[in-house]
From TrEMBL:
The chain crosses the membrane at residues 18-39, 45-64, 76-95, 101-121, 133-152, 158-180. This is HdeD family acid-resistance protein. One of its GO terms (cellular component) is plasma membrane. Keywords: Membrane, Transmembrane, Transmembrane helix. Coiled coil: none annotated. PANTHER family: PROTEIN HDED. InterPro entries: Acid_resist_chaperone_HdeD, DUF308_memb.
Length: 188
């Protein structure tokens, strides 16, 4: 067995830990999405702080997964995505006066990298778990969202809030479904 081989039994043992983190990320994403949709007229300052907290927590979750998950094949992408999420969160919290365009670029880059990492993870995990399509779908949604935001960063605050809110809701629901599937697999 090489260092790149993963024992499927090891993954099953660690699934009880992994599913909770995936569901937590999904719930946080849904909450963030609802806030963005309920109050689309938030100022760029408030949106930056809300995004900052979300990205910081999500980035920490990705980093935890990168170091706790026995599948080391795409660890570098998960670490990079986690570091980008933490950095985006800290920047948005420390300097909340950044412009909507700058926030859009941060959100777009973060969503694109996170999406690519999740697509890679889904491809690598397709032999170990069922439901990897949900992870791949979450990654695809994230990558598409990131590209769209990077292409049109000058959208108004309300448009960005609605766009981010819808994305976060869909992304969160997909992550919650994946987490619940992982929980079911862990108990089998």
């Amino acid at each position: 067995m090489t260092s790149h081989d993963v024992n499927p039994q090891t993954i099953v043992i660690d699934l009880p830990k992994a599913w909770g983190l995936v569901v937590l990320r999904g719930v946080l994403s849904v909450l963030f999405g609802l806030l963005a949709l309920i109050w689309p007229g938030l100022t760029a300052l408030a949106l930056a702080v809300v995004f900052g907290v979300y990205a910081l927590v999500d980035g920490i979750g990705l980093l935890m997964d990168a170091f706790r998950n026995p599948d080391r094949s795409n660890r570098g992408m998960r670490i990079f995505g986690g570091i980008l999420g933490v950095a985006a969160g800290v920047i948005a919290i420390v300097w909340p006066g950044i412009t909507v365009a700058a926030l859009a670029i941060l959100v777009g880059a973060w969503a694109l990298v996170t999406g690519i990492a999740e697509i890679a993870a889904a491809i690598r995990l397709r032999k170990q778990i069922e439901g990897e399509l949900l992870l791949g779908l979450a990654g695809l949604l994230s990558a598409i969202f990131g590209i769209l935001v990077l292409l049109w960063p000058a959208l108004g605050v309300a448009a960005i809030a609605a766009f981010i809110g819808v994305f976060a809701l869909i992304y969160g629901v997909v992550l919650i479904a994946l987490g619940l599937r992982l929980r079911k697999l862990a108990h089998q």
